[in-house]
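To the team - adenosine-5'-diphosphate complex, inputs and output below.
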Amino acid sequence: LTSSSSGSGLHVVHIAAEMAPVAKVGGLGDVLSALSKALQKKGHLVEIILPKYDCMQYESIQNLRVLDLAVESYFDGHLFKNKIWIGTVEGLPVYFIEPLHPAKFFWRGKTYGEPDDLKRFSFFSRAALELLHQSGKKPDIIHCHDWQTAFVAPLYWDLYAPKGLNSARICFTCHNFEYQGTASASEIASCGLDIHHLNRPDRMQDNSSHDRLNPVKGAIVFSNIVTTVSPTYAQEVRTSQGGQGLHATLNAHSQKFVGILNGIDTDSWNPATDTYLSFQYNASDLEGKSENKNALRRHLGLSLSDSRRPLVGCITRLVPQKGVHLIRHAIYRALELGGQFVLLGSSPVPNIHREFEEIAKKFQNHEHIRLILKYDEALSHSIYAASDMFIIPSIFEPCGLTQMIAMRYGAIPIARKTGGLNDSVFDVDDDTIPIQVRNGFTFVTPDEHAFNGAFDRAFKYYKNDSEGWEELMKKVMNIDFSWDTSASQYEELYLQSVSKAKAARRAA
Ligand code: ADP
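Output:
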């Protein structure tokens, strides 16, 4: 077991529900591995603790083995053993917790969406702290993410710091304030939190249902550092319209709250080396991009007759947040404007899934439209590479990664100006923005008319100015979306917090 960092680097432990590529549902998984890799590259010791899901991509874990360490953790009045596994993912040490609990918490064939998710992840949060405690680790930073591991913050200060696991500062990153894990106090009590002490307006009590506790609110209150995933979203969630009920709490804790724009993993998202692609390419040699476009059209049975017919891509979870009505509209609009449209999306929402299944069926043999309603990592790479344009018409978007990935692959984004999209997509026609950063097409109002305003302009530009379009492609492919800058911001926050704690300890 690695127990402390070497040299002057920090020892950072992430506790999370996702990590790409082993257990990825959305952006959280990408962030976990890319931020960890960037911090490791800066000389910090970074370790990750994940649940041991049955449905992980096991082939991406090297040297997976069981540790000779039986960690017992508390839940619902009993102690349960946990089997602890360790392996290497993308060069990072990862601990996997397998609870020996009769409910087989992570043996469900899926990551989320079980009726007992609250139990599954509050159990995991506690077991992860128990692992740190029982293995004698002394991390400088424990970084937890989203409601699933938000329990870590109050558990740490209320139970584990008094037990001696007290070396760490707690950082909490909320990747999406829509999901808060709110539940009755008795459910939250299962992991051993003292609900009487926590059920107060200035602690964990939900701001609208006073008989319920809110794990995300608890993490905001009890963490030393609170971040979210873009500066614009950090401002939006401090307003009553955008805060999903937590704006007052975030305003009360604004001193420790910042928005840091995510990067993308530029090693795994690189058209010059991407092994998922039939043809690799780069900004100075774009030939491979049109070959990928044809390869995808062939693969999906779309017409190859006109190479200048623009291909519009969309890769997303199909949930209301993503602007599903505008995605549906864009399919028809692309057709009207003479384009092709490929959607790769999966939906956990039954009526949205049904609706898109209907549309997929309608277009199943169409020469210009294809809807693929599943999660498919390999296909996602082919679509980014094949697309000329890429739509992200979100209602709200904490950061959004697909616009950045699309640009890295030379697909021009058409995005709504919200959250992280507002921090990464800048309209080519907006004179108020320096010309060198303009990189896409944007719109403000989440309706069809406003969407068309941006979409139609993109089509017109593509059709009327192929040289200008190619310049734009080269420009967006050369934008630096790596984690270097953002990881430095996290590093800075960690270091400030650690030195503040040291100073306080010296003063005491
Ligand atoms: P969110 O985290 O809200 O889902 P992000 O834009 O932050 O949205 O991250 C989405 C990530 O998930 C991207 O890497 C995207 O390529 C991937 N993704 C989304 N849907 C699919 C899908 N159906 N198949 C493959 N990858 C997908």
